[in-house]
Predict the 3D structure of the following.
Amino acid sequence: MSLEAGVTAPDFTLPDDSGNEISLSDFRGRPVILYFYPKDNTPGCTTEACDFRDNMARATARGAVVLGISPDSVASHGKFKAKHELPFPLLADTEREVARLYGAWGEKKMYGKIRLGLIRSTFLIDADGTIARVWPKVKVKGHVDDVLAALEELH
């Protein structure tokens, strides 16, 4: 079950791509674009991360922070971030606890088979820590533009 707009975003603490502990509450007072993605260095995940990278000026102009979360390790995130020059933290949810909390872990259908996995999802959290918008089961193409348009609407 995914979280819905209008509820308080659950706080969490995870290690980032450098091993530093990052909490969602660290960013209270600023909008947060929190996106869950399945795996570092895969085509869709790389496209999504690079789209956020290429549009960072639009996000930061509104005071927003971008946080990417996947089940990959700190080391994997560090390499992925360096390779693609990503200017935002990638958080390692290796136990999938935060993904479960946000409803981004569950059954997926892939090649006709149902299996458990990370469901590509994005949450726009306002400066007060309330979920303003949810994108479940994200399709990468055009997604970042949709998120940034919703960020504009927050102002």
Q: What stands out?
A: The chain has a mean pLDDT of 94.
